[in-house]
Amino acid sequence: MIDLHCHMLPAIDDGPTALDVSLAMARCAVADGITFTACTPHIYPGLYENSKDGIAAAVDAFRAELAKAGIPLQLGFGADTHLAPDLVGGIKGGRVPTICGSRYLLLEPPHHVAPPRFAESVFGLMTAGIVPVITHPERLSWIESHYQVFPDLVHQGCWMQLTSGSLTGRFGRRPQYWAERMLDEGLVHILATDSHHIDKRPPLLAEGREAAARRVGAEEATHLVVTRPQGILDDRPPSELPPLPAPRPSAKGKGGFWRRLFQ
Length: 263
Prior knowledge:
Elements: E1 2-6, H1 19-32, E2 36-39, E3 42-43, H2 52-69, E4 74-77, E5 80-82, H3 87-92, E6 104-108, H4 118-127, E7 131-135, H5 149-156, E8 159-163, H6 164-167, H7 173-184, E9 190-192, H8 206-216, H9 218-233, H10 256-262
Parallel strand pairs: 1-2, 2-4, 3-5, 5-6, 6-7, 7-8, 8-9
């Protein structure tokens, strides 16, 4: 499996603070069946002032530590990128990395406030030739009141990434509900761990794949953790990758009781 969203680098953002924890995370990922991890620390102006060159240097150093420890995990890098002015300029200027140098960019919306003109900002990225991959929409506190923005963005060509643990209830019932709903409605392109630690948020992807397989079948579950992630690494255009599945019949009209409950 391929994990394209993981905070594994030590002492670079809100992930692990020590190398031994990072190595434990890498061992856990390998044991779970992950063969490739993209290290994607936050780029959040004013809080995490990471850059492409700094992340690349941190990955090179961590790759050397993996080799010394005999941990067979392949690494790449990108960034968990927050919306910021002139994000396109940051990408084209070499300050903000896409996922492993591809046309795909991890884009993290604010957790608790729906950003104004969010769809417009995402569309601006797409017109610049970038495929935004929205990270963990199911965990945003404003998804209830702005849910339709996500299907609309998918239909315009944006990608969605769910957190593996959301499908298994690691983040609670509410994110699990929205993760399952988006999966049922055929809105999810990839799963990733978004791991930050070995204990509270370990890099486990197999459990999410199995949970997805129970809802959308084994073939689509493989697309979520292997086929489409590999397509990103190969920088293939979305048109050459497996299309999203049709919505499940049970997804039609879904959300009455549960949506009222979580609102």
